[in-house]
Backbone:
C-alpha cells in the first residue's frame, strides 16, 4: 500500500490532482483511492487530500494515514500547519517553495533529518498555465522522485484526463509537469 | 433511442456521487426533481449535465425545497415516469413527510441518500442519522459501502422498485464524503447492459393512461387506512426480499458482482463479529483479517438491505458467534442503538448464547480508525473469555472527554 | 367498496373512476359513463336535502349560470339547454336559485315534500317593483 497526503489550499486543485493521479494509476491495473477532508471550507482555507494505491482492493476507509509521501502544494502551509503529522521514518516530502531544500529545512526545523525535496510548483504554474494552480506540476515532481511511471506515459494519460479543457491549457499543463519533473531537487 | 450513448472504460475512477449519476443516466430517468444539498449535490448536477449534453432524454425540475423535490417526483411517478432524485441530511429531514406519501402511493421512485449528520450542530460530514430517520417510511433501503456499490445498487433499486409485485420506492444509501467524494475504481456496465438490466419502464395505474382514469393520493380515514398500511407492510415483508434476491442474482450474472441481503465476511468460524453499515464494513473487514493473524477469530457482518430488515438472515449469520458488537453511526438519543435493538430482536428467540454489546461511533464524520476496530475486537474477545459482557451495554467509540457508557 | 380486506383492493392510495377502459370521455354524457362504485357519481346525497330546487322551463333563458355555479355538478344541461336538476347529487344549497337572472326566477327552492306540479302551478308572477327599482341604482 502506497499512501500519499496532500497539503493544499481549497481551490489549488489538490482534489483534482489526487483524482487525476488515481485515474492514471488505475489504468495500470492497480487499485486506487482518492479523497479529501472537506468541511465548510472556503477557497484559500488549508485542507488535505489523500491517495491510496495498492495491488489489492482497498477496503480501508479510515481517514487516519501514515503517509509514504507528503505533497505540499502551497508554500505557506509548511509554517502554518504541521505537514509532518503522523509521518513515518521514511516519509518522503515534496514541497512547493521558492527556497532551496537547505533553506527550507533551516526555516522549518520540523523538517530536519527528513527526506525532503523541493520544487517551485507555484512559479512553474504561473509561468506555464498562467495561474497559481500547482497540482499538475506536483505530479510531475512526484514522477521524478518516486520513479512510478515514465514521464511520457504519465503525460499521455494526463492529457486524456484533462481532455475537456482547451488545448492551450492542456499544453501548458504538460509543460508544467515536465518542468517540475526536471526542476525538483 | 434519441440520445447519445457514452463510451466508458471498463474501469473508471469515480467517486460515489458520479457513479450514482452515471447509473441514473444509464437507467434513462424520465424526471429528476431536485433541490441540491451537500454532499449529494453532484448526483443531480451530474444528471442535469448529462441531460444538457444530450446523453439522456428527460426533464430536470428545479424546485424550491426538498419537500417540493420529492413532491415533484411523486407527481411524475404517478404520471407514469421513471423518476429519481438525491438528497442528504437536512434535506432528507424536510423530505420525510413526502417519503410516506411516495411509499403509500406505491410509486417506484429511487432516492439516492448520501448519508450525512443532522444538525444541530450543523455538519456536512457523513453519519447515518438521516438513514435511520427514514427507516419507518415504507421505502426499501439499500446500503452501499463504496463507489462501485453506489453504482451497482442504483440499477438493482430500479429493477426491484418497479416490479409490479413490489411497486415501492427505494433508497440507495452511501456514506457522505467517505463514499460520495472518494474516488475509486468502478467497473462499469455499457449503456446497453445497464439499460437492458432495468428494462423499459412498465407503468402501472399511471395518470397519463387516459383510457383508465385514476385518482391518486386518496383519503381513507379509519375505515381503510389500516388495510392499506397492512398491505404495504405485508408486501415489504413477503414480496420484496425474493425480488431483491432475484435482482442480485441477475446482476451477478450480468456483472460478476455478487450482493447479499446480509454480507458476511470471515464469518464461517468467527468467534467475535462486528455488525455495521457503510464504509465501516470494509474497514472492519481489513481489521478482521489482521486480528486473525493475532489469533482472534474475527468476522464482519454488513447490512446490505436495511429495509425490509433481514431479520432471519442476520440471525442465521450470527448463530455461531460468541460475541457481537453492534455499531451504530447515529445517536440513539435515549435508547440502545438501532442495530443493537434489531439484533437483539432477531436473536432473542434463537438458541444463540452470543454476548451482544452496542457501540455508538463516527457521529458527524468522526473517523473510525483501524486502531478503534482493533480495540473493539479485543474487547469482544475479552467478553468471550469472561463468558459475559464485561462492559456496559452501550459505549462510545472515538468521542473525546471522560468515558461515556450506559445500560 | 365498504369493509374490503387488505387483499381485496389495488395497491396504492388510488381509486378508479370507471369500470374498465373508457374512450372519448369528454363527449360521453354522465348517465352513459360506466362509473365505478368508487366514483361519487354512484353515491346519492339526496337525503341530505331539506329544501329542493324546482325548475320552471317557461322562464328559463338557458344562460347556464346555474350550470356554472352549481358546486355539485347537479344541473343537467344538454346542447346548452337547461333540462333539469340531478336530484341524486343536489344537496339543496340554493345557489342555482340565487344566481338565476330571470324574472320571475326559473328555479325556486321548496321544501323537500312539496309537490312539483303544485309548485309550478303556483309559480310567482313577474316582480314589477324590482324592475322599476333597477333604474334607480
Residues:
Amino acid at each position: 500500500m502506497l499512501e500519499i497526503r496532500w497539503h493544499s489550499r481549497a481551490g489549488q486543485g489538490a482534489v483534482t490532482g489526487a483524482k487525476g493521479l488515481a485515474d492514471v494509476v488505475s489504468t495500470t491495473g492497480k487499485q486506487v483511492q482518492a479523497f479529501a477532508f472537506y468541511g465548510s471550507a472556503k477557497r484559500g482555507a488549508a485542507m488535505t487530500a489523500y491517495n491510496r494505491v495498492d495491488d489489492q482492493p482497498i477496503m480501508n476507509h479510515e481517514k487516519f494515514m501514515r503517509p509514504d509521501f507528503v505533497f505540499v502544494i502551497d508554500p505557506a502551509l509548511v509554517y502554518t500547519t504541521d505537514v509532518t503529522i503522523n509521518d513515518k521514518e521514511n516519509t518522503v516530502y515534496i514541497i512547493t517553495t521558492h527556497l532551496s531544500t537547505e533553506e527550507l529545512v533551516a526555516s522549518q526545523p520540523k523538517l530536519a533529518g527528513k527526506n525532503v525535496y523541493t520544487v517551485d510548483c507555484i512559479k512553474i504554474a504561473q509561468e506555464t498555465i498562467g495561474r497559481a494552480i500547482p497540482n499538475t506540476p506536483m505530479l510531475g515532481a512526484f514522477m521524478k522522485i518516486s520513479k512510478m511511471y515514465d514521464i511520457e506515459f504519465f503525460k499521455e494519460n494526463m492529457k486524456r484526463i484533462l481532455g475537456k479543457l482547451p488545448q492551450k491549457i492542456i499544453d501548458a499543463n504538460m509543460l508544467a509537469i515536465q518542468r517540475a519533473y526536471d526542476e525538483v531537487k | 433511442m434519441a440520445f447519445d450513448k457514452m463510451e466508458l472504460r471498463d474501469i473508471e475512477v469515480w467517486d460515489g456521487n458520479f457513479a450514482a449519476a452515471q447509473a441514473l443516466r444509464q437507467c434513462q430517468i424520465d424526471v429528476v426533481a431536485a433541490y441540491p444539498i451537500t454532499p449529494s449535490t453532484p448526483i443531480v448536477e451530474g444528471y442535469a449535465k448529462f441531460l444538457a449534453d444530450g446523453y439522456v432524454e428527460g426533464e430536470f425540475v428545479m424546485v424550491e425545497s426538498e419537500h417540493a423535490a420529492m413532491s415533484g417526483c411523486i407527481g411524475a411517478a404517478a404520471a407514469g415516469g421513471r423518476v429519481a432524485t438525491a438528497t442528504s441530511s437536512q434535506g432528507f429531514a424536510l423530505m420525510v413527510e413526502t417519503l410516506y406519501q411516495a411509499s403509500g402511493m406505491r410509486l417506484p421512485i429511487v432516492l439516492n441518500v448520501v448519508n450525512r449528520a443532522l444538525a444541530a450542530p450543523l455538519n456536512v460530514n457523513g453519519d447515518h442519522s438521516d438513514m435511520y430517520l427514514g427507516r419507518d417510511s415504507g421505502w426499501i433501503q439499500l446500503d452501499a459501502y463504496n463507489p462501485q456499490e453506489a453504482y451497482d445498487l442504483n440499477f438493482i433499486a430500479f429493477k426491484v422498485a418497479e416490479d409490479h409485485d413490489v411497486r415501492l420506492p427505494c433508497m440507495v444509501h452511501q456514506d457522505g464524503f467517505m463514499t460520495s467524494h472518494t474516488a475509486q475504481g468502478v467497473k462499469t456496465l455499457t449503456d446497453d447492459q445497464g439499460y437492458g438490466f432495468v428494462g423499459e419502464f412498465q407503468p402501472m395505474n399511471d395518470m397519463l393512461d387516459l383510457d383508465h382514469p385514476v385518482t391518486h393520493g386518496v383519503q381513507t380515514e379509519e375505515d381503510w387506512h389500516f388495510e392499506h398500511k397492512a398491505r404495504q407492510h405485508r408486501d415489504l415483508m413477503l414480496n420484496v426480499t425474493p425480488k431483491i434476491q432475484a435482482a442480485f442474482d441477475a446482476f451477478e450474472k450480468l456483472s460478476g458482482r455478487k450482493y447479499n441481503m446480509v454480507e458476511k465476511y470471515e464469518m464461517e468460524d468467527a468467534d467475535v463479529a462486528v455488525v455495521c453499515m457503510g464504509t465501516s464494513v470494509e474497514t472492519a473487514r481489513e481489521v478482521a483479517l489482521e486480528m486473525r493473524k493475532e489469533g482472534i477469530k474475527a468476522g464482519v457482518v454488513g447490512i446490505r438491505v436495511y429495509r425490509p430488515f433481514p431479520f432471519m438472515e442476520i440471525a442465521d449469520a450470527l448463530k455461531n458467534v460468541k460475541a457481537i458488537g453492534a455499531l451504530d453511526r447515529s445517536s440513539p438519543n435515549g435508547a440502545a442503538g438501532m442495530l443493537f435493538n434489531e439484533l437483539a430482536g432477531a436473536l432473542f428467540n434463537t438458541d444463540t448464547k452470543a454476548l451482544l454489546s452496542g457501540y455508538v461511533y463516527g457521529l458527524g464524520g468522526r473517523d473510525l480508525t483501524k486502531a478503534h476496530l482493533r480495540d473493539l475486537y479485543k474487547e469482544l474477545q475479552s467478553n468471550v473469555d469472561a463468558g459475559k459482557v464485561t462492559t456496559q451495554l452501550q459505549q462510545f467509540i472515538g468521542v473525546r472527554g471522560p468515558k461515556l457508557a450506559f445500560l | 367498496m365498504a369493509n374490503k380486506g387488505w387483499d381485496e383492493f389495488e395497491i396504492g392510495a388510488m381509486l378508479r373512476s370507471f369500470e374498465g377502459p373508457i374512450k372519448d370521455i369528454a363527449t360521453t354524457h354522465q348517465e352513459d359513463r360506466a362509473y365505478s362504485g368508487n366514483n361519487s357519481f354512484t353515491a346519492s346525497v339526496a337525503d341530505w336535502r331539506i329544501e329542493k330546487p324546482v325548475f320552471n322551463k317557461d322562464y328559463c333563458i338557458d344562460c347556464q349560470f346555474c350550470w356554472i355555479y352549481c358546486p355539485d355538478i347537479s344541473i343537467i344541461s344538454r346542447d346548452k339547454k337547461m333540462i333539469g336538476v340531478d336530484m341524486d347529487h343536489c344537496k339543496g344549497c340554493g345557489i342555482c336559485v340565487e344566481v338565476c337572472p330571470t324574472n320571475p326566477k326559473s328555479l325556486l327552492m321548496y321544501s323537500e315534500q312539496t309537490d312539483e306540479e303544485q309548485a309550478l302551478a303556483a309559480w310567482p308572477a313577474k316582480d314589477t317593483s324590482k324592475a322599476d327599482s333597477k333604474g334607480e341604482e
Notes: The helical segments of chain C are 65-69, 95-99, 116-121, 128-134. The CA atoms of residues 52 and 92 of chain C lie 5 Å apart. Residues 128-134 of chain C form the longest helix (7 residues).
